[in-house]
Amino acid sequence: MTRARRNPLAADVAEVAGALEGIRRALRGAILEQTRQMSVPLTPPQLLAIETLVEELRSSGAGLSISELSRRMGLSHSTVSGIVDRLEARGFLRRVPREDDRRFVEVELTRDIQRWLREELPASRSDPIADALATASALERAAIRDGVVTLARLLAERRR
Q1: Helix or strand or coil: residue 121?
Q2: What is the pLDDT of residues 34-89, one digit of tens each?
Q3: What distances in angstroms separate CA 104 from CA 64, 66, 80, 85, 137, one per listed residue?
Q4: Residue 107: HSE in the Cβ half-sphere, 13 Å Cα cutoff
Q5: What pLDDT, on a 0 to 100 scale, did the predictor assign at position 138?
Q6: Is residue 69 packed enough to be buried (19+ CB in 10 Å), middle (13-18) or exposed (0-12)?
Q7: Integer CA distances (angstroms), 132 to 52, 89, 124, 126, 144, in order
Q8: Cβ atoms 53, 69 nearer than 8 A
Q9: Count of domains forming the chain
Q10: Which of 37, 38, 109, 158 has the most crowded CB, counting CB atoms within 10 A?
């Protein structure tokens, strides 16, 4: 007897996790495609640096040191320093001395990029979903909405 037959929950978990990973890839691909259409497109490591700084901005309202950014990206300090240099030259990031110790700097998103994140990025994420849902029947849209909302609620309850 296969493992999936012995443990239906494990099979459901694997299927849901796989589907969510596919959705994550599709949404990330849409954002990556938008960055490729820029006059000078972003590389995947540059996009990862920006995503990491966005996560930090949303959680703490601050930037990160290059050391911490390196750790979170899983790349060497010198590699991330080069990525930051290129993004800073393009006006995406800026280095700001830490208020408590001016010998250290934090890397932050520029105001223009923060505006882009607030105003344009949400559409980049929602457009692929809207396109997919436009082809679904009303019943399929309701099932998708109900399933995603339920999963989000269950995950939130686990964190409490």
Answers
A1: helix
A2: 766 765 678 889 988 998 998 899 899 889 999 999 999 999 999 999 999 999 99
A3: 11, 10, 16, 16, 55
A4: 28
A5: 95
A6: buried
A7: 27, 37, 13, 10, 11
A8: yes
A9: 1
A10: 109
Residue 35: inside a domain: no
The rounded distance, in Å, linking the Cα atoms of 55 and 64 is 10
Q: What mean pLDDT is predicted for residues 94-114? A: 90
Per 3-state DSSP, the chain is made up of helix, strand and coil in percentages (nearest 5) of 70, 5, 20
Beta bridge partners, 115, equal: none
Burial environment of residue 65 by CB neighbours within 10 A (0 to 12, 13 to 18, 19 or more): middle
Residue 51 burial by Cβ neighbours in a 10 Å radius (0-12, 13-18, 19+): middle
With CA atoms as reference, report the closest residue to 151 among 5, 19, 2.
19
Question: Would you tell me how many other CB atoms lie within 10 Å of the CB of residue 156?
Answer: 9
The CATH number given to whatever domain includes residue 79 is: 1.10.10.10
Cβ neighbours around 88 below 10 Å, total: 14
142: in domain: no
